[in-house]
Amino acid sequence: MEQKSNIGIWLIGAWGGVATTAAVGLRAIQKKIFPPAGLTTEISDFSSVAWNSWNDFVIGGHEIRRGSFSETAEELIAQNALSREIVTPLLSDLREYDSEICPGLLHHSGKVVEKMASEDFCFFLNESPRQAISRLQRDMQLFVQKKQLAQLIVVNLMSTEPQCAYFQDFLLHSTSQREAKSFGNTADFARCQQEWQNWEKMEKILDDPKCPLPASTLYAIAALDAGYDFVNFTPSLGATPPAVREFAKKKNARCAGNDGKTGETLMKSVLAPMFSHRNLNVMSWVGHNIFGNRDGQVLENQENKATKVASKNHLLEQILGYTPQTLVTIEYIKSLGDWKTAWDHIHFSGFLGTPMTLQFTWQGCDSLLAAPLVLDLVRLTALAKRRNYTGNMDFLACFFKSPLGVEEQSFVRQFEFLESWLDLAKER
Amino acid sequence: MEQKSNIGIWLIGAWGGVATTAAVGLRAIQKKIFPPAGLTTEISDFSSVAWNSWNDFVIGGHEIRRGSFSETAEELIAQNALSREIVTPLLSDLREYDSEICPGLLHHSGKVVEKMASEDFCFFLNESPRQAISRLQRDMQLFVQKKQLAQLIVVNLMSTEPQCAYFQDFLLHSTSQREAKSFGNTADFARCQQEWQNWEKMEKILDDPKCPLPASTLYAIAALDAGYDFVNFTPSLGATPPAVREFAKKKNARCAGNDGKTGETLMKSVLAPMFSHRNLNVMSWVGHNIFGNRDGQVLENQENKATKVASKNHLLEQILGYTPQTLVTIEYIKSLGDWKTAWDHIHFSGFLGTPMTLQFTWQGCDSLLAAPLVLDLVRLTALAKRRNYTGNMDFLACFFKSPLGVEEQSFVRQFEFLESWLDLAKER
Amino acid sequence: MEQKSNIGIWLIGAWGGVATTAAVGLRAIQKKIFPPAGLTTEISDFSSVAWNSWNDFVIGGHEIRRGSFSETAEELIAQNALSREIVTPLLSDLREYDSEICPGLLHHSGKVVEKMASEDFCFFLNESPRQAISRLQRDMQLFVQKKQLAQLIVVNLMSTEPQCAYFQDFLLHSTSQREAKSFGNTADFARCQQEWQNWEKMEKILDDPKCPLPASTLYAIAALDAGYDFVNFTPSLGATPPAVREFAKKKNARCAGNDGKTGETLMKSVLAPMFSHRNLNVMSWVGHNIFGNRDGQVLENQENKATKVASKNHLLEQILGYTPQTLVTIEYIKSLGDWKTAWDHIHFSGFLGTPMTLQFTWQGCDSLLAAPLVLDLVRLTALAKRRNYTGNMDFLACFFKSPLGVEEQSFVRQFEFLESWLDLAKER
Amino acid sequence: MEQKSNIGIWLIGAWGGVATTAAVGLRAIQKKIFPPAGLTTEISDFSSVAWNSWNDFVIGGHEIRRGSFSETAEELIAQNALSREIVTPLLSDLREYDSEICPGLLHHSGKVVEKMASEDFCFFLNESPRQAISRLQRDMQLFVQKKQLAQLIVVNLMSTEPQCAYFQDFLLHSTSQREAKSFGNTADFARCQQEWQNWEKMEKILDDPKCPLPASTLYAIAALDAGYDFVNFTPSLGATPPAVREFAKKKNARCAGNDGKTGETLMKSVLAPMFSHRNLNVMSWVGHNIFGNRDGQVLENQENKATKVASKNHLLEQILGYTPQTLVTIEYIKSLGDWKTAWDHIHFSGFLGTPMTLQFTWQGCDSLLAAPLVLDLVRLTALAKRRNYTGNMDFLACFFKSPLGVEEQSFVRQFEFLESWLDLAKER
Questions:
Q1: Which pLDDT belongs to residue C192?
Q2: Regarding predicted confidence, which is higher, B242 or B120?
Q3: Chains sharing 3 or more CB pairs under 8 A with chain C
Q4: Are C41 and C376 in contact (CB under 8 A)?
Q5: Cα-Cα-Cα-Cα dihedral sign, residues A161, A164, A169, A170
Q6: What is the mean pLDDT of the segment spanning B50-62?
Q7: Mutation test of the interface with chain C: which of A82, A83, A361, choosing the one with the most C Cβ atoms within 10 A?
Q8: How distant is the Cα of A90 from the closest Cα of chain C, in angstroms?
Q9: Which residues of A292-308 are buried (b: 16+ CB within 10 A; e: fewer)?
Q10: How far apart are alpha carbons B21 and B368 in whole angstroms?
Q11: What is the pLDDT of residue C312?
């Protein structure tokens, strides 16, 4: 058995709902206030895996708003998401965590997010990408030294950024047919091929005064460049460009993403294979999502929402092999707070063509569904490092709506990738 | 390529809704009135398999009611299940099919079914099991000769029988712990072990004047003994006893079952793995089913319903590894006709214990969901014979609620069994 | 303005969920911890009515279990029904209320309820009805004296009793046609007519050693005989017999009932008039109710459940004028606690006969829906006394599933009865 | 008893789904192919009213597309809305109806509708409002003469027009507070007050070369000016301006509107009073509507959709007395055809503030729900004429989403207006 040492979880968007719930939950498990329920790494089939103990992990991060873990926890309690019984005994721990949270980035985060930012940001508004990366790295390195960490895992949990226009879709699904469809402008396409596929070329974008790289990608570069790991739990760009993933490998670091699969999309990746295997023709799939947390407020903004809807929508086509009419709405309904309610209406036909219907309503608490995935991803990334795995962790596909580098979208098959990786690499 | 020749589909319960829809659908495909949609054997991934053409199949069967295919088709049209446009051009074909339907069996079918029986049954009421088997075999052999068939596949589609009390559950899940639980009476248990596990011993039950074997098992024995295949699409006993499955192998025949997985249970076998893989604790799973076809009328009777509910309920425990509180109701609501509506309410908790909810409503046309599975099963059984496969066809698990000899209940994994069998045995 | 004085609320089943919520809520309003939201008597249209202040009311009652208000409140907090923030500042008040709770009755309450009873009941098990009534009256009179009350309003909130077999249905719907149908035995019918219609005759039943009167009716008689008011919030017999209602009038007291209309049945009384006024033919109405509180445990018992189902079912026929196929199930699902979830499926047809569907899911917290009605009924009963109204308060129909003496079942029309009574009698 | 004579139903948008279903249904009733089910005027409570016989009515109309009744009926059959059994025996009647359909108007109907228009419209594109009105009147008068009609009732069933920008909302809800809110521009407001309130002033708009009056209002003016009645079954402007309603009275004609209340909004007007009377605080009400008929295609267009959403949304505020957060979406999902599916999620809180949820799913066939209302409105308008009623028929409020001149939005109370009018005016 190798020597254990501390592992840092570096939360981007640390005082947001998901990050706060992850921090509260981790500490509750460490202090045995609540058992480690709802975590994939804790299922009995995986009991022989040499996981890190939950006690190995410590928490720091970046944030752009004023606030504190306890303030956000209080909001979540008011929304019936967290229970006061769990939070109260952790208040002093949360205050300690607060002291490790540093000011984050706002590059291309969109107007809604900018408005939420703390005034302290006047100091950083004119930072160039290079300067920003250096600052982020200083913050992370200080934390690593102070806590004497063997590994730092950066998890992006900030609000969804506006879609990084012309290349996002291309990079997610880069097959020649799709390229042709999504690129009206051949010049753009050519530029993408050159710049985003290769790290040496892409790095130069950082010096471009009009550098289009959003905060999520700057975080990824800062982390990987310092040899830290990067997990993108949002649909923002992050480590999506092939060049960034290549860079991870070069730096002996790990990356994963995009967009944690928690509710309606998880259901899609579970149900669509049923229709496919039974040869039932999905004529239309409508999904209406309503919720009222901060994430919802940001998604009220059309440009941020576009990124999210794209991430929720493409997998049906990938599973079914054809394109049914789809509709995805995400609407901010204040009274729901963190409780995301999704209604899906699936209209299908089969033998002799008669139309039939499946409807479902999902009523889940967003932060509580997302936070355990964050902890699972961190624990799996720690295992990957011990196994000397580097680069994009495609075996984590079952955790993501848009898994980088993976075409398979059936949840059970993605889960088999994970089982298979755990098995092959099992320490004996 | 081997020489093609005709294959008989012998429908038990021929003028019921599912059998009629299968007959109408097969003929519609043969006459190119409707494309072969909604059939698993027609998915593009399986396009390289050397399937029989749909034109290879002909139809006969047994029935205990007076009636005709066109009469039942008319009922299904009135219930918006079949469309008149499809049925009308097939009326003369259906009349021809009618002439191949012979009187069936009523042994231990329960009072509701007995009441439905045609008066012609006065001739057969005192038949011993041996006599009944001989009669069934004569009917089938005549059909085989007349149509010059290379293979006959018997598919049990009759109404659910009352539960064959003390051994059904034992045989389905025979592990030592479960045995202990379900058998209060050790004498019964010992008898089961001896009689139902071995064909030579079991055969003697046929001579018992109080022979407890229900019609479904007599059909199975009659078919297998004559070298024909037997597929049990219902939860009735059929070929469940290990002795019967052993007998199939001995006779170079094939069997499969139990209980076609069409709606709510299909959903369970698709959704439960999601909860399991995500370590979400299912606290309760309630399923209410309402429908108004003849099957529903039979299930109004408590003893017949028990067989069905047992078949719908056990798989959750098998997938989840623990026993949530479950409730399954099946109620006859006349106005719904063949449209089965299921409402399921799944109450689960995960990280930090907050309860969440998934509800779904399934509105499907029972006959239209079941009939294509019948045709798929027949086509797969024909392929199995060409590949010299004998005995229980466990690779068909994805088609059944209670697959014989298979513990795996996750639909996608069961489907992988099928893929794997098709692949390994692929003719090139 | 008349002189104000205290009014007692005497809760039967005081430590049950509804009574505890009513007690907590009343005290929270009195201490201004929560505003008087969700109360019908507080709607702005009624702001000119001379209501009693909430401060006028004090609480006592009967109970058959061991327990306390705070114990039950703790259970409701664990079920996410009550919030700890509201309960904690009231704990000493609840302890004071506890001291006013006396042992209740168990006559014909059914086995499930008997099992729940405290051991203290060994002292009372052989009480005759007359003795029981005297004891109840002593308890209430002591409370009235101690608190110097101007009025005592007894509210029956105990678990549903088994159906008081042969007369319940008759008394609820006594029209000659219905009589004919429900009474096979003419002798029984004649006896009912004689005994239950007239107080002098009915009173003699109390001396019958096999007296069939259940606890709810003994409570009613005890209260009314002492000049106190009686409100039956359950479907138990209570003051249903015409003789008891006549007795109320004679004693210058008031009575009301039966069965608070809180969730699924409220919806029925709101939706059914829509189908009726639009001449849409309701073919079937299926309602499945699941919940997991103590009431649910009692209703697990078939004989107690029958009383409830009858109360939930009859109103459709009364509103529609014909009898669609109906199905009502009530099932105990532990994980749901006090959260009653109802799924209703309404199948209807209209112009040219095409079937259409309305489904609804109601997710409400039973105690929180019922408790404000209790407070409203008490406040309205107090007003009725000041207006010298005596006998059955039929203007309260909108609060009940089976309003005594009222045929109208449309909720909005029932509400108009209340508006009209408030208006006519308005104090100026 | 007065002398009976024929009454014309003049359908605007005659070959649309609702109009075709009304025509088919009327003829099916006249030929006794189907009983008059699903009609409000046929409920047993109204059996003593001296209704016109359905045989009294004949059909003509205007349309802007090429087509025929049988073509549209065929579409509705393909969508499982109409049944072929009903349509087939009426085909020759429908052909006869076709010969009475004349080219309609396109003024301010929006681009989507213009694209649907037949090429024949090149002849009419430069018509001034005055010319258009004359043409419409000639068409109607010819029909009246030919069929020797005693009355002509014009029913607007054409697709929803874009919102007639600055005055629509003002006219619907003209109270001083609302005026202040909706009119930023005081000049516009002043102009409205002057021009649209008084017929003499408004008439002059017809001569304005930039006349903003949409087709629906020109139809209304044409009809009323000729002494015919006008019923606006859509949310378009129609007879909304007070000046037009005043004009109806002056001409001894009748008008009614707006927007037939068939599905989700009917539900709102039935459910909202429940929340209001129970003092349950509606925090949010979300309604998602999906359907795939021609109406849906038109509403795909944002400007047409705005008119519809406004009509569906305002009534909650009117019933509840406050403004919950609301969201109404209407989306075109082709596969659904005429089957409108609405999912509503109502989030409310009551006693002690705990949030609760009501969800419903309405699956109705749009044309079949709307068509009987058209026939009921026509029959009631015929009765109104016999009773010498003139002007706006406010007693028809229960049929409309936005009843002209009526503040009451509770369906049951609106229905009581109808009952009361029928009663008061009953012929004896």
A1: 62
A2: B242
A3: A, B, D
A4: yes
A5: negative
A6: 96
A7: A83
A8: 18
A9: bbbbbbbbebeebbbbb
A10: 7
A11: 67
What is the pLDDT, as a whole number, of residue A425? 52
> From the centroid of its chain, how far is CA D115?
22
Spatial contact of A17 and A338, defined as CB atoms under 8 Å apart: yes
Total-model pTM: 0.91
Name which of A136, D273, B325 is nearest C273 in CA terms.
D273
- The C-alpha atoms of residue C44 and residue C419 are separated, in whole angstroms, by 12
**C-alpha separations of D215 from A87, D237, D329 in Å:** 63, 9, 25
| β strands within B227-277, DSSP E | 229-232, 254-257
Interchain proximity C286–B355, CB inside 8 Å: no
Q: Which one of C74, C83, C336 makes the best mutation probe of the A interface by having the most chain A beta carbons within 10 Å? A: C83
B5 and chain D: CB distance < 8 Å anywhere? no
Rounded-to-integer distance, Cα A421 and Cα B249, Å: 38
The β-bridge partners of B230 are: B154, B255
Quote the CA–CA distance of D394 and D372 in Å, as a whole number.
19
Task: Name which of B299, B278, B257 is nearest B394 in CA terms.
Answer: B257
Confidence of residue B248 (pLDDT cuts 50, 70, 90): very high
**Which 3 state secondary structure label does DSSP give D141?**
helix
Give the pLDDT of residue B184.
42
Question: Do B223 and B198 form a contact (C-beta atoms < 8 A)?
Answer: no
Q: How many residues does chain D have?
A: 428
Which residue is listed with tokens 């038990």? B12
Query: For residue B300, what are the CA distances in angstroms to B192, B311, B333, C428?
Result: 30, 16, 10, 61
pLDDT for the residue C288: 93
pLDDT over 80 at D424, yes or no: no
pLDDT score, position B188: 53
Confidence band of C179 (pLDDT split at 50, 70, 90): very low
Tell me which residue of C172, C189, C143 sits closest to C9, measured CA to CA: C143
Count of C-beta atoms within a 10 Å radius of residue B89: 12
Question: D279 to chain C nearest CA, in Å?
Answer: 5
Tokens 């078919």 map to which residue?
B223
For residues A286 and A326, the answer to whether their CB atoms sit within 8 Å is: yes
pLDDT for A187 equals 56
H or E segment to which residue B359 belongs = strand B355-365
Residues of A in contact with D363 (CB under 8 A): 357
DSSP C240-307: -SHHHHHHHHHTT-EEEES-B--SHHHHHHHHHHHHHHTT-EEEEEEEEEEE-SHHHHHHTSHHHHHH
Triad A395, A401, A404: Cα angle to 5°: 50
User: Is residue A428's pLDDT more than 80?
Assistant: no
Instruction: Provide the b/e sequence for A96-133 (b: ≥16 CB within 10 Å).
Output: ebbebbbbbbbbbbbebbeebbeeebeebeebebeebb
CA-to-CA distance for A40 and A166, rounded, in angstroms?
36
Which residues lie below 8 Å from residue D382, measured CB to CB, with a gap of 6+?
A: D7, D52, D56, D151, D153
ipTM (interface predicted TM) = 0.91
Q: CB pairs below 8 Å between A and C: how many? A: 3
Q: Which of D154, D179, D155 is nearest to D168 (CA)?
A: D179
Number of Cβ within 10 Å of residue D256's Cβ equals: 31
Q: List helix spans (H) across B89-156.
A: 91-98, 111-116, 129-147
Among C57, C33, C409, which residue's Cα sits nearest to residue C229?
C57
Calculate mean pLDDT across residues B370-393.
Answer: 97
Cis upstream peptide for D293 (omega within 30°): no
Mean pLDDT lowest among A278-282, A289-293, B23-27, C86-90: A289-293
| Residues of B with Cβ-Cβ distance to C284 under 8 angstroms | 333-336
Is the pLDDT higher at A418 or at D171?
A418
Residue B174 has a pLDDT of 47
What is d(CA B37, CA D159) in angstroms, rounded to the nearest whole number? 36
